Amino acid sequence: MEGNRLSRWFDRKGWSDLLIGAPYVWLLLFFLLPFLIVVAMSLGTKTPTAPPISFGGDYPLFNFQGYVRAVTDTLYFRAFITSLVSAGIATLLCLLIGYPMALGLTRVSKSWRNILLMLVILPFWTSFLLRVYAWMGLMGRSSWFNAGITKIWNAIVPAGWAVDFMPMMHSNFAVVLVMVYTYLPFMILPLYASLERLDPTLDEAALDLGSRPWQVFLDVTLPQSIPGIVAGGMLVFIPAAGELVIPTLVGDASSPMIGRVISDQFSSARDWPMASAIAVVLLVLMVGPAMIYSHFQAKAEGSK
Amino acid sequence: MKRRHTFLVSMLGFGFAFFYIPILSMIVYSFNESRLASVWGGFSTKWYVSLFSNKQVIDALILSLEIALVSASIATILGTMAGIALARFTKFRGRLLFSGLVTAPLIMPEVITGISSLMFFILMAQWIGWPAQRGFTTVTLAHITFSMVFVTTIVQARMLQSDRSIEEAAMDLGSRPWEVLRDVTLPVISPAVMSGWLLAFTISLDDVVITSFTTGPGSTTLPLLIWSKVKLGVTPDINALATLMVGIVAIGVVIAGIFMNRAEHRRQRDEQMAFRANG
Fold it and tell me: CA torsion, points B223, B228, B229, B233, in degrees to nearest 10?
């Protein structure tokens, strides 16, 4: 009887509790709790102890110095601007390259389309680190690629501007280029998904009614693909803004991006409050707009 | 009427050249005789030979595979549970927080996930003495946490597409909830669960940032080994390693693509036949 009652309880309630509970508890313990620790640490005071943090002393309980410095110190301010501008330019370039590619994918024959889609996804499955590394090889001063670009440059500019090689590595240019390279599939795939659903007869109708092709694009295709543009844009911008690997390998060390600043503050300077405060500010800057957008979108969906 | 799309097709050509020229260049230079990574000095396979005799690389590869196997498997179980729960139980206490917890790791910058996990492990060691040292366990725990939400996303999407009435029929016919899950739900979503596992495996195998924060002395994964080497510059043996990794993945993706294409064709043919038989 006892076993029977247990199994009935399990069927009625225990079952769903287990299904929800196990992943819930896991995420609370290993994701939310560590994140709350970051928020708490951002209000602490740096000390030369281990772990290098305390609450109290000159700043009883809360010390907002980390936030004050994160917002006012020009080093951090510049790192924020560098990150947001680089990620913004990379997102825009991904859109400018990815949109025609996604549109092109919807116009090729079905058998070609599957092969080309696989070729878009393939780099995504290969190591991110190695894709960054591939560009280190191309941009280095003695590579065939750099030599080729240098030749073209020297042929088109006046003789006084001629260079021995293109200083591509360790620059913001290199960071943006590699970001576009590594994140372009994230832009193409959502764009393709939203463009594929469009009804081609709408285009035909607009053309038959005398619109020019670019007018059809602006009036018919583009407005309908905005959800894809937003989704792709967020998938590129958010990871790019917090990027650590790309700026470390190909970036300019004298103007670090914010991901690198967080990592350096944490590991080298052992300043937990500072690293945590910058992390919280970065999250607010990135996730804030995304939440506002999804709030308005939910409202728009609701009013339909 | 067939219009030509010269601009779009040339953009596709440009895009694919942009995608693949760096990789092809890396592959070509992995067969370079010269020590100087970017100066061609004749054909050679010596970097591959030196790679296979490098114990450091082999050890790191084995550690990476172990971590990826364990973390992908646990992440798939937890992620699938969360995906089923979110798709089937529309009302339970704390659902809003739960769905937030499932989305947040997707958009959290890796640096922040990394430092928060490290602080968590350091403080835990201080407070309760666990984990005594960082290494395999801490890296695996961190990998499970950020890869399970990818599994959840895939499984949840598949669950929302699937027909609920079959599950309800099984329930009405007297099946118990876990039997419905085993005999009806899991077979239907198994392709999604499998692609979830594959994604979690790849993410774990590829991760640099979170691993670098959560690992300890003596536990160097393959990406961490590559990371420490490429920070110093381009070397021909990394080109060889990269070529092998890209080659294995490419073969895997092509085979998976062919299988999926065949399955898709078969499904379409079956649907057409069923349609004709009923019509």
Answer: 120
- The dihedral formed by the CA atoms of B210, A238, A291 and A264, expressed in degrees to the nearest 10: 50
Instruction: Provide the shortest C-alpha distance from residue B9 to chain A (in Å).
Output: 6
Confidence of residue B3 (pLDDT cuts 50, 70, 90): low
pLDDT at A303: 58
Rounded Cα–Cα distance for residues A93 and A184 (Å): 9
Residue with tokens 């089923």: B84
pLDDT one-digit tens code per residue, A270-280 = 999 999 999 99
The CATH number covering residue A195 comes to: 1.10.3720.10
Owner of token pair 């939400």? B149
- Distance CA(A108)–CA(A89), nearest Å, equals 29
Determine contact, residues B101/A27, Cβ cutoff 8 Å.
yes
Under 8 Å between Cβ of A190 and A155: no
Query: Which residues fall within 8 angstroms of residue B149, CB to CB, at 6 or more apart?
Result: A27, B79, B82, B102, B103, B105, B106
CA distance A177 to A166: 14
ipTM, two decimals, is: 0.89
A121 near B CB under 8 A? yes
Q: Which of B98, B123, B249 sits opposite A126 (nearest CB)?
A: B249
Contact indicator for A45, A59 with CB cutoff of 8 Å: yes
Residue B175: strand, helix, or coil: coil
pLDDT in tens, A214-248: 888 888 889 989 989 998 998 899 899 999 999 99
**How many domains are there within chain A?**
1
The CATH class of the B63-242 domain is mainly alpha
The chain A residue lying nearest B98, using CA atoms, is A24
Domain that holds residue A130: 2-303
Pick from A26, A135, A22, A257: nearest CA to B109: A257
Average pLDDT value over all residues in chain B: 89
Of A18, A38, A241, the CB nearest to B115: A38
Nearest to A138 among B22, B92, B226 (CB): B22
The pLDDT, as a whole number, for residue A304 is 47
DSSP alpha helix (H) spans, chain A: 2-9, 15-27, 33-41, 65-72, 74-107, 110-125, 128-139, 144-156, 172-196, 200-208, 213-216, 222-224, 226-241, 245-250, 258-267, 272-303
Q: How many whole angstroms separate alpha carbon A23 and alpha carbon A20?
A: 6
